[in-house]
Amino acid sequence: MSTMLLPDHVLHWDDERQNGDGIIVTLKYGRSFDPVWHEGVKGFDTIQEAKSATRRDTYPCKCSECTNR
């Protein structure tokens, strides 16, 4: 598999599809997949969904855990 460039705000990308799971993306502290709640980890079914979400569907996280780091 080729090396994929990830946005700076992505901490970890784990492709677990061979195990029957999805692609698990973990964002760095300070970013969230949800504009209101802390949602720093999210699963996706396809690489395209994960790429799209990490490039346009992340928000600055305002939870105390992220803002106090």
Written description of the protein model:
The protein is of the alpha+beta class and 69 residues long. Helix content is 20%, strand content 28%. The protein has one domain (10-67). A 3-stranded antiparallel β-sheet has the order 1-2-4. Strands 3-5 form a two-stranded antiparallel sheet. The mean pLDDT is 88.
Largest sheet: 3 strands, antiparallel
Written as H for each helix and E for each strand, in order along the chain, the element string is: EEEEHEH
- From the helix content, strand content and strand pairing, which structural class follows? alpha+beta
Residue runs with pLDDT of under 50 for 5 or more positions: none
Radius of gyration: 12 Å
Summarize the model shown.
This protein is α+β, with helices and mostly antiparallel strands and 69 residues long. It has helices at 47-56, 64-67, and strands at residues 10-15, 23-27, 31-32, 41-44, 59-60.
Descriptors:
single chain; 69 residues; alpha+beta; 2 helices; 20% helix
Task: Set out the fold topology.
Blueprint: E1 10-15, E2 23-27, E3 31-32, E4 41-44, H1 47-56, E5 59-60, H2 64-67
Antiparallel strand pairs: 1-2, 2-4, 3-5
